[in-house]
Specification:
- Strands 8-7-6-9-10-11-12 form a seven-stranded parallel beta sheet, with helices on both faces. A five-stranded parallel beta sheet has the order 2-1-3-4-5.
- It is of the alpha/beta class and 316 residues long.
- It contains twelve helices and twelve strands.
- The chain has two domains: 116 residues, 3-Layer(aba) Sandwich (Rossmann fold), CATH 3.40.50.720; 181 residues, NAD(P)-binding Rossmann-like Domain (Rossmann fold), CATH 3.40.50.
Length: 316
């Protein structure tokens, strides 16, 4: 059997990435588009995901031949997992691929880009400099050496970010629902203490029903006044109305986000966080580019294509 695979992932960093599937599968690549996905998925046995469109119940029910979904990501919130399971569709992802993921540091590095951008007020200082305004004292930031970095989720990314924090001479606290052994210089604490003592709170947990809206108004009330929030995980982990309120009140000094809730929707200019960022100088938002580097994407796509190849060979 020769499988037909629909691909909507951007493979421009490694155009020949699907070569290992030669003789096993025919791969058809088209740009990511929700309407096209729903209309064409019935022609294919497998789907290689783009994070720009939702693999929702409509897609899965339209995919009458669909047997496998591949996503080159650890997060799977863009896929209706329940619907896929109901239809007996296998989902292949990077979740639990610890050995491979240890070599991918892009998102941890992005955490620091966002953190420094907010703390040193870089986006707004740059905009001023472009206008010829050399107002050094007007964009006074903070030194992070000696501050406390709080890490929620001491898994792969949390551990990498913690080590970066030590390199910046920060005190590092971490919190995890699992019992884990921290690296030297990292103190494990409970959730409330993490909030109360962190100058910077960085989120590195998966989105689940237990973590959805976890950082809510109550959490912001417990957070150390004047703290910074950094989120490179998933937007829905944060109650975004509570986040705006905390930023407006000054309870939260700033935030750096690589993710927002509903980032796959149209007309993002009307998203409340984007509207807020257009009129305030304490929120930096990037369009979910934490893992988007040439190196990380090439490695990830290649890994997932080979994982798909192994799966298809077993099915045949």
């Amino acid at each position: 059997m020769k499988w037909r695979i629909l691909n909507m992932a951007d493979i421009s960093v490694c155009p020949g990435v699907f070569a290992p599937l030669a003789g096993i599968a025919e791969v058809v690549s088209i740009p990511p588009d929700q309407t096209q996905l729903i209309e064409r998925i019935s022609e294919f046995d497998g789907y290689f995901c783009s994070l720009y469109v939702r693999t929702d119940r409509r897609v899965i029910e339209a995919g009458r031949r669909l047997r496998v979904i591949v996503t080159p990501s650890t997060g799977r919130d863009h896929i209706d997992i329940e619907a896929a399971q109901e239809h007996g569709i296998t989902i292949l992802s990077l979740k639990e691929e610890t050995a491979f993921l240890d070599s991918v540091t892009a998102t941890a590095e992005m955490t620091w880009a966002l953190m420094l951008a907010v703390i040193r007020r870089l986006p707004w200082a740059f905009e001023a400099a472009k206008r010829g305004i050399w107002a050094r004292d007007g964009y006074r930031g903070h030194q992070i050496s000696g501050k406390t970095l709080g890490i929620l989720g001491y898994g792969r990314l949390g551990r990498i970010v913690a080590e970066y924090g030590k390199a910046f001479r920060m005190r590092v606290l971490a919190c995890d629902v699992r019992t884990v052994s921290p690296a030297p210089g990292i103190e494990m604490v409970g959730f409330d203490r993490l909030l109360e003592e962190s100058d910077v709170l960085s989120l590195h947990i998966h989105l689940s029903e237990q973590t959805r809206g976890l950082i809510d108004g109550g959490a912001f009330a417990k957070l150390k006044p004047g703290a910074i929030l950094v989120n490179t995980s998933r937007g829905a982990i944060v109650d975004e109305r509570a986040l705006v309120a905390a930023l407006e009140s000054g309870r939260l000094a700033g935030a750096g986000l690589d993710v927002i809730d509903g980032e796959w929707n149209g007309n993002l200019r009307r998203h409340p966080l984007i509207e807020y960022a257009n009129t305030h100088e304490n929120l930096v938002i990037s369009p979910h580019i934490g893992g988007v580097t040439v190196e990380s994407q090439a490695m990830t796509l290649s890994f997932m294509v080979n994982k798909l190849k192994t799966h298809l060979e077993r099915q045949n």
